[in-house]
Amino acid sequence: KKVAILISGGGSNMVSLAKSMTGDHPGRPCLVLSNVPGAGGLQKAEDMGIATEVVDHRDFKGDREAFETKLISVIDAYEPDAIAMAGFMRILTPTFIGHYAGKMLNIHPSLLPKYKGLHTHQHAIDAGDAEAGCSVHEVTAELDGGPILGQARVPILPEDTADDLAARVLVKEHLLYPAVLVRFLRGETEMLSL
Ligand code: GRF
């Protein structure tokens, strides 16, 4: 099965996903697409021999529909069976989400349903939570709201800054996302907890 991976930045999740798709894994990466020209993940993808594309949202002057229409045409040329959003920092409208309904995953750096949106680690620290983590979910029209397919937890330590916590969670993201993707492609949907 062909997997398109959407990024906006360094693409560390993309790298761990791409590296996991070998041997008898049902998936293979067919495309890495970024909305940001020159995103660090693009070079990493090229170094791994994966096709890359850029669709710069700034070329569409706030016209979300036009941006998404272009995204869809570029992505569909690669005929993906699944879309993995990995640090893709654009909010997508129901048009895009509906086009890939049931085929699109995202990783979010919180224990959903807590802390949707941005600055998740600071929110967890400010709330005095003992734990934080990351979630992989199916993408639906509700931002960070679709069915949760997997979660990984880490302790929050007393002296943690948001950056300390982000680094601890990122290590888990790189384990969780590949573990969820392979199950998703095999049609296994019971939730994974790491
Ligand atoms: C990660 O914290 C991930 O949770 C969020 O984007 C951040 C950067 O991810 N979605 P990556 O290194 O670009 O994969």
Automatic annotation (TrEMBL):
Binding site for N(1)-(5-phospho-beta-D-ribosyl)glycinamide: 11-13
One GO term of the biological process aspect: 'de novo' IMP biosynthetic process
Active site per UniProt: 108
Pathway: Purine metabolism; IMP biosynthesis via de novo pathway; N(2)-formyl-N(1)-(5-phospho-D-ribosyl)glycinamide from N(1)-(5-phospho-D-ribosyl)glycinamide (10-formyl THF route): step 1/1
Catalyses which reaction(s): N(1)-(5-phospho-beta-D-ribosyl)glycinamide + (6R)-10-formyltetrahydrofolate = N(2)-formyl-N(1)-(5-phospho-beta-D-ribosyl)glycinamide + (6S)-5,6,7,8-tetrahydrofolate + H(+)
One example GO MF annotation: phosphoribosylglycinamide formyltransferase activity
Record-marked site positions (Raises pKa of active site His): 144
Enzyme Commission number(s): 2.1.2.2
UniProt KW Transferase keyword: yes
SUPFAM superfamilies reported in the protein's UniProt record: Formyltransferase (SSF53328)
CC per GO annotation: cytosol
PROSITE patterns linked: GART (PS00373)
Keywords per UniProt: Purine biosynthesis, Transferase
Keyword Transferase: yes
InterPro entries found in the cross-reference section: Formyl_transf_N (IPR002376), Formyl_transf_N_sf (IPR036477), GART (IPR004607), GART_AS (IPR001555)
Pfam families documented for this protein: Formyl_trans_N (PF00551)
Binding site for (6R)-10-formyltetrahydrofolate: 64, 89-92, 106
Domain Formyl transferase N-terminal per the UniProt entry, residue ranges: 1-181
Enzyme class: transferase
General function of this protein: Catalyzes the transfer of a formyl group from 10-formyltetrahydrofolate to 5-phospho-ribosyl-glycinamide (GAR), producing 5-phospho-ribosyl-N-formylglycinamide (FGAR) and tetrahydrofolate.
Family stated for the protein in its record: Belongs to the GART family.
Name of the protein this chain belongs to: Phosphoribosylglycinamide formyltransferase
Taxonomic path: Bacteria, Pseudomonadati, Pseudomonadota, Alphaproteobacteria, Rhodobacterales
Gene: purN
